[in-house]
Write a structure and sequence with these properties.
With about 160 residues, this protein is an alpha+beta fold. The longest helix is centred in the N-terminal third of the chain and has 12 residues.
Length: about 160
């Protein structure tokens, strides 16, 4: 049975990153966008990361331009936007696709593990997946679920 550690992705800075680097941590995987009505969630995601990082939480941001062309920039523009506007310090990755034939293998797996309201398809930017310390998907959250609403589940996963 696959776990998060079986995947890799290109970091926003260009190098390939093996996600096994996050083994043993609680991971919140989020598809993000810079020009979305939900973009202010970056602030809440950063707050979660800052608040729980020492206990073993990591947030992984995956920019995606599949929803309303709301992530039109390149990796440099995305990185600068996140740092300047929201002080993002959690790991960000290169732009990917989350649905369709070109979907990144990580997202193919996440969608298979936890379907949503539209079957397994990702509905919109800021869909979130909580992955436990063992690398298995615990929960999926709708784009409109704000990061602060996930804190209790994160605390439970960190304590497990």
């Amino acid at each position: 049975m696959p776990t998060l550690s079986d995947f890799s992705a290109r970091a926003i800075t260009g190098e390939e990153r093996d996600l096994s680097a996050y083994a043993g941590q609680v991971v919140l995987v989020v598809n993000t966008a810079s020009q979305c009505g939900l973009t202010p969630q970056y602030q809440g995601l950063e707050q979660l990361y800052a608040g729980y990082r020492e206990q073993g939480l990591v947030v992984l941001g995956f920019p995606c331009d599949q929803f309303g062309h709301q992530e039109p920039g390149d990796e440099t523009a995305i990185s600068e936007f996140c740092e300047l506007n929201f002080g993002v310090t959690f790991p960000m990755f290169a732009k990917i696709e989350v649905n369709g034939e070109g979907a990144h293998p990580l997202y193919q797996w996440l969608r298979e593990e936890k379907g949503g309201i539209l079957g397994d398809a990702i509905k919109w930017n800021f869909t979130k997946f909580l992955v436990g310390r063992d690398g298995t998907v615990l929960k999926r959250y709708a784009p409109t679920t704000t990061p602060d609403k996930i804190a209790d589940d994160i605390e439970a996963a960190l304590a497990a």
